[in-house]
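step: validate -> pass
step: tokenize input -> pass
step: predict -> running
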Amino acid sequence: MKKLISFAALAAMLAACTNPQGTDNAGYGSDGFGEEALTAEVSEKSLNDTYLMAAGPKYYIGNAYKVEDVQYIPVEDLTYNQTGVAGIVPAELNGTKTSNGETFDINQMAATSKTLPLPTIAKVTNLDNGQSVVVRVNNRGPFVNTRIMDLSPAAAARIGVNGTAKVQIQVLADESTAVKKATIGEPVAAVTVEPLAKEAAAEQPAPAPVATTGDYSVQVAAFYAEDSANALAKRMAAYGDATVVHEGDMFKVRIENLDAPKARSVIDALRSGEGMAPGLLKNGRWVNADSI
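step: predict -> pass
step: emit ->
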């Protein structure tokens, strides 16, 4: 039985990309596959709709290729966890064909990748505000060396990306395996995508704060409203030295003065107990949240 789960998306290619691996139309595949719009239910509960895990026209990895003398090597990597800069797929590419034969829809949760298999399911976290979205990666790009991913306009809006942003990209192994099997016609067991935001479970009390001193800070969230930031910082005091940092027009809630073991513990507790996707800084600079 083919597996269908939640979410969105068809990824689109950057308008400026050249033609990798025999593609055309701004990088979209010209391999004889016709455009195919996957049946979608556009819904606020998109984590559980039928779109994210729908079988695609084909499962596509491709060979190593070059664009403007830069070589890219596509590979299946279920442990992929990278940080970098993400941009936004141009809205004018709405309706064009992606590299694996789907049709790009600006209203779906979609993304592009230079090397991940198509389709792949991944969680993308905006490291400036801690907001996350799950996307269906199903197109090649962006062929701009300063960016590792482009998001559909809808996905970008979901996590507060207005132009470019520093993000963390984590492949969801179970979901990606399931959508691959659905696409190639293998039986698929039921898979449920975990919600990215949930209320803290009453049976999981927050850990008691431990006095530490270190180079790490864990960013919990960012707000335009100072009152909201202060309220969250008060609650986050259970995890350590929670403060509100005013940067630009945003108020960022961070747990500071952490050594590596404590930072790791706080990140794990926020993920499991609070349903959050915290970011990590070392001496004020963003680092991969799973690097410690």
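step: describe -> The helical segments are 153-158, 173-184, 226-236, 260-274.
step: cleanup -> pass
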